[in-house]
Amino acid sequence: MKRFQSEGKSDENHNLSAKKPSIFRGLILAMLSGIFYSLVSVIVKELTNLHPGQIALYRFIAIFVTALPQTVQVGQNPFGPKKFRIHLILRGIAGGTNIFLNFVAMHNLSISEATSIIFSSPVFVTVAARIFLKEPCSVSQSFAVVFTVTGIIFTTKLPSHLTDKQVVYTKERLCGLLAAICSVLCSSLAIPLTRKVKSVHQAVMTFFYGLVTMAETLFLTAIFGNFRWHHCGIEAAYIVLLGLFSFVGQTMMVLALQCEMAGPVSTVKAASDIGLAFLWQIVIFHEDPDSYCIVGSALVGFSIVFIGFNKWRSSHSGVSDSQNVEDKS
User: Fold this and answer.
1) pLDDT digit string (tens) for 230-250?
2) At CA 126, angle to CA 123 and CA 130, rounded to 5?
3) Are 187 and 77 in contact (CB under 8 A)?
4) Which stretches are transmembrane (predicted)?
5) Could you tell me which of 154, 122, 157 has the C-alpha nearest to residue 141?
């Protein structure tokens, strides 16, 4: 009898140890998603010849085409379950509008001004997840959001922009600011919707997302922009990499939201985005960092470590509590 009990406990310990590596799975996937999305931002800045809507259209075509084989292999309805179809449509519209406006903002603003607004989305995502998904918003999570946003403000040197009297609000600048603000609002809606339909297969979600966003972006670009053929040479390679990185980043984001709450996922993604933007600023754009960038990157890096530690602490205490209950019984 004792032998069976010891075997049962060893099996439970084996199962618990097998589950431990997945504790950080959602946060790691969110960080990887941020890495690939940051690479997409670099490519968008390099493709100055093309309209932002056309670049977004290339992105969504790549997501749609790349997700098609996996969707066929899964064998499920490519349009998703009926009870979630309206959520999938709204997710596609919000996500497509978010990327379209995101690229417009980067096209009309400097990268520091665009990121200072766009990367503030974790604050609004956390609030939206609390309202619509009833997700808890702990004090530690709120601190992580504050650290991330503060790091973003320092890295993008927002205080110096606000006090600069030489800033001229041209038509392009106002358009970029409005696009960035609306992009944040759309992102705050798209991420909780992804979390809402987390039971839908990842391939189906990505395929349907690509279908809706492709049709929407084609319509928006036909109205607000003009289609141009890309230049020969490096631009063709950029477009291919844009599609590949977009698909991987989107897939990682969906998988992250299927196993982790929307607030921590959006915070880690924004933190990795801005941290890598700091790196690309040095390596690719050859801009020397100043004290603002150093302080900002330190705060952003601290927020990632803080979220990871808090996740480990909560999961560890959960295992301890369950073990104590079993011991008492």
Assistant:
1) 666 788 889 899 989 988 988
2) 140
3) no
4) 23-44, 56-76, 88-108, 114-132, 139-156, 176-194, 206-224, 236-256, 291-309
5) 122
